[in-house]
Amino acid sequence: MLELTMASVSGTDAGATAGMLMADAPSEPGAALRVGRDPAVCRLVTPDDWLFVSRVHLDFQCAADGTWQVTWLRGSQPEPSSEVRLTIGEHTQPLAYGGTVALSRGGSGEIVVQDRTSPRSVNVGFFHEA
Q: Fewest Cβ atoms nearer than 10 Å: which of 56, 66, 88, 89?
């Protein structure tokens, strides 16, 4: 099972957990969880006017072997208006626009989608049960 928690953070609200959203999906081939502005497609939905987040921004997919991966989907613009970084333990790395990273089984971490123009972010915590 993959469990996600999401908090939308703006300016001085850093560290606030009010409005935290949660979603999970079984580790079965083809299972998916999505994060973005489109409530018709995404299980975790950001504020509609936060245009630094695409309609479907992050796509978590379960592979045939039960492992999960996350992809930062390319949006309608050639250059993104956000930065995405992945933290697992002490290690932080950028996630490339259009890039995919495998999540280790039994691992946890955080993905931060940071607005390039203002102090806003979407923080998505994940836990992949072994």
A: 89
pLDDT in tens, 20-71: 899 999 999 999 999 999 999 999 999 889 999 999 999 999 999 999 999 9
Calculate the alpha carbon distances from 64 to 21, 76, 94, 102, 126 in Å: 27, 29, 26, 13, 20
C-beta of residue 72 within 8 angstroms of C-beta of residue 58: yes
The reported pLDDT for the residue numbered 94 is: 96
If you average pLDDT over every residue of the chain, what do you get? 91
Backbone angles phi, psi at 12, to 5 degrees: -80, 0
Which tokens sit at 106? 């039994």
Q: Strand locations in the chain, DSSP E?
A: 2-10, 21-25, 32-36, 44-45, 58-62, 68-72, 82-88, 91-94, 100-103, 108-115, 120-128
User: What is the pLDDT, as a whole number, of residue 39?
Assistant: 96
Give the other-Cβ count within 10 Å of 33's Cβ.
22
